[in-house]
Amino acid sequence: MTTEPGLVVVDKPGGLTSHDVVARVRRLAGTRKVGHAGTLDPMATGVLVLGVDRATRLLGHLMLTDKAYDATVRLGVATTTDDAEGEVVATAPTAGLSEEAIRAALAQQTGDLLQVPTAVSAIKVDGQRAYARVRAGEDVVLEPRPVTVRELVVHDVRLGPETVEADVSLRCTSGTYVRAIARDVGSALGVGGHLTALRRTAVGPYGLDVARTLDELADDFAVLPIAAAARAAFPAVDLDDAQAGDVRVGRSLDLALGGLSAVFAPGGTFLALYEPRDGRARPVAVFV
After folding, report:
1. CB of 65 within 8 A of CB of 171?
2. Which of 4, 114, 149, 288 has the most other CB atoms within 10 Å of its CB?
3. Which range (120-124, 184-188, 237-241) has the least confidence?
4. What is the CATH T-level fold of the domain 6-64+205-226, as seen in this structure?
5. The whole model's pTM is what?
């Protein structure tokens, strides 16, 4: 069995790597040409967007979109991985912390930030993943990266003498490490911190409302067709026949675009992604 090009939005369970999910979808789709738009750690659950066949070429552009998460931060304990899967490296009592101070520290993690990624990230250092270097015993310190946390809402703070937990929701740019937010809040408060739960609730326009579990996909496998996926993720421009012909051979167009856009032939066939450059619309990726 083979499947048409498109996206599959999976509600990833805990305990599986993103590659595990890709492997399962490859079997269900009947093709090895499956990739994902942004890794989720094994501990994390929620929205994992996969591309099948030609739609894998959309994924690099989807990774530029905002993502949303629900998370639980535990203060009073620091770990090697900044989450619950790492070894404890430090503890500190939290009896002196007030809810107001915790909320203020979390509020400081909004806006434009220079964030140091967690050392066990998939970022490459001299050609090798940072997490692999950490596992080999190296002391890895990554360079700060600009990220934007557009919104961080604190739903609940549970105070305790030894640890404190806070449930939060946030919306941020791709590349933001929620684990690093937990770490940095704990550091700012002087008690250490890590993440105990993480659920991704959206990647760009794709949320939990359209996500399906692996069991559901095994019973009834289907993709979001590439044309529908492109219309959902990018501004859409419908072309005439002459313009569509130009796109098919990679020509620029005399169109005013507001940003990266999906262009369609008459009849709705998705043709390409175009961007404004030098006063014209120019191809970024052609799909026909």
Report:
1. no
2. 149
3. 120-124
4. Pseudouridine synthase (3.30.2350)
5. 0.89
